[in-house]
Design a protein that fits this description.
The complex is a heterodimer of chains A (109) and B (538).
Chain A: E1 2-5, H1 15-19, E2 25-28, E3 31-35, H2 46-50, E4 56-58, H3 70-75, H4 81-86, H5 101-106
Antiparallel strand pairs in A: 1-4, 2-3
Chain B: H1 4-10, E1 16-26, H2 30-41, E2 46-49, E3 64-66, H3 74-86, H4 93-113, E4 129-131, H5 132-145, E5 149-151, E6 156-162, E7 165-173, E8 178-189, H6 209-216, E9 221-222, E10 229-234, E11 249-252, H7 265-273, E12 278-281, H8 289-296, H9 298-305, E13 316-324, E14 331-332, E15 346-348, H10 356-359, H11 367-391, E16 401-402, H12 420-431, H13 434-438, H14 442-462, H15 469-492, E17 515-519, E18 525-529, H16 531-536
Parallel strand pairs in B: 1-2, 1-8, 2-5, 8-15
Antiparallel strand pairs in B: 3-4, 6-7, 6-16, 7-8, 9-14, 9-17, 10-13, 11-12, 12-13, 17-18
Helix pairs in contact in B: 2-5, 2-11, 3-4, 4-11, 6-15, 12-14, 12-15, 14-15
Classes of the chains: A alpha+beta (109), B alpha+beta (538).
Chain lengths: 109, 538
Amino acid sequence: MIEIVSERRCIACDICVKVCPANVFDPVPRAAPVIARQDDCQTCFLCEIYCPTDALYVAPGAEGPTPVSEAEIEAAGLFGSYARALGWRRGKPGGTDKDPTFRLRVARR
Amino acid sequence: MPTTRQLIHRQRGARSLDLAADVLVIGGGPAASWAAVTAAETGARIVLVDKGYLGTSGATAPANTGTWFVPPGVARSAAIERRQKLTGGLADPRWVDRTLETAWERLHAMAGWGYKFPNDDEGRPYLANLRGPDYMAFMRCRVLRAGVAILDHHPALELLSDDGVIAGAAGIDRQRDRSWRVRAGAVVLATGGCAFGERMLGATGLTGDGYLMAAEAGAVLSGMEFSAQYALAPRPSALNKGLPFAWASFFREDGTRLDTAGKDRHVVVAGAMLEGPVWAQYDKAWPELQPWLRQGQPNCFLPLDRTGIDPFTERFPVTLRCEGTVRGVGGIKLSGDDCSTGIPGLYAAGDAASRERLTGAVTGGGGPNSSWAIASGNWAGRAAAKFAAEAGGSLGDRQVRGLGQAGLRPSAATNQDLTPGDVLQTVRDEFLPLPRNFFRRAATLEQSLGRLDAAWAELSRHLPGEGVGAVKSREAAALTATSRWAYASALARRESRGMHRRVDLPAADPDFVCAFEASGLDHITITRADLASRAVAR
């Protein structure tokens, strides 16, 4: 579930408010959005990749909240890790031309 | 004449939003986007409303999906024949062929539009895979370029009827807490399948809303017993994406290995999970394959990387997530090649529609459903635009009536102590557990159906649904109705076939090469349908 909106990284663009399919965020005037409906989060990680400043962190546990601190996520280099793995940058798509999944579809099982 | 987008802008401060369109598309996944693009190609005015955001909504956006992509000719005939044997004899080869044909055409169109497909090792574009977030971001751009007005976070709560002809929908703008109404010449339901409240990717939007709205209009559901598809996921994540598990071994708590050789690993794991926790390790992935898995399926590794597990060398706990009719089969019965539903003005596409004709009794998860979303979206979009054009007339003058009942207009005094969350918990308790849904038997099906019928009786009479709160109330109603159609159909199919596993009737019965249709809300009727008579009905 969504756990962190980093106030240090956030530029208050409210893109996450717009793109979250579960509507978990509420905007705050001139400030970082708040996680208003965490239990609605479907743990899809898509808010992370749409965030232009890698300010969001989704913990992998989907059944309830996971206590995590911003400092530990920062130290572990996990802000933006999914976007980097896909090849998305600053909230914009990219990287499908390098997707090797076609090899998996024919690989020996 | 102002464009629809200009009209939306003008009404931005109003207490409600009122629009007219030729075609209203409801949904935010691939089928909805294809329906909108195709309908707009005819020159029609299109509005697309979605509960979430076109680009992230649905089961496809968080995934990396194959497509069923087969060239015309001998290869296609062979693929159809091979697949037909798997479908329990319930698929219709003519529908499979036309699905493959339309998907083939439209995937080539996507390449022409500039979607960045990878090149295979021979340097040729590989069109048989679509990475979810990128695919849906791309489709959002195409929908906007086609001139479609998109309303994100505008869940539809009910269809509108003009004397039996579907004439639009109404709902709520959940971020501004104001109602909206779109009167339209035709409606395409592309609201996805139903995940029954499971914690899986896409589930937030996949609550069966379209099934409920269609049934209230008199439409019929088909194949709802094929709603027992489950996917492996690292526990406790929502990642129901199974590709890396093709190279996994599975273990019991005590470390003994499960024998999956030559068997359906889901059935083996489900059986073991009845006894205790199951663990997995991607130990069959050889070194060269590992970086391909990581780079090609990065989301599958997030739960593991973020908890410090190397799945190639370490074991991790797994669970089975119920994918209901998402990777299951059932949905709104289509009455014609054009994705019409038998209700004038109402069309269905993608997982909102029954995929029995494509996949029969087995999952269409991955490639087949992905190609189906493209094909059925195209057919429904075109047909809806044609219906609207032929109906003609001034949409603004139509007298329309909202069809929504349970969760919106309770039939008795509301009970403020009854919450959508309570109803959701009942659906989860009755529909998600393996001993109830994965392994089915008459006694447990009847017991669960009794509880779900009682929940329905209570919510349809007393559950309040006002303002933004109506969204959750309608979801609760849709989840309950869908689980009842599914279990009532499962009781009628007195055999095992494909994903419908009756422990008390483990064999397939040749007498059941047929479809079961579910209709009704307060009282559910299950009707047996002959496949031969369906095949000739065009």
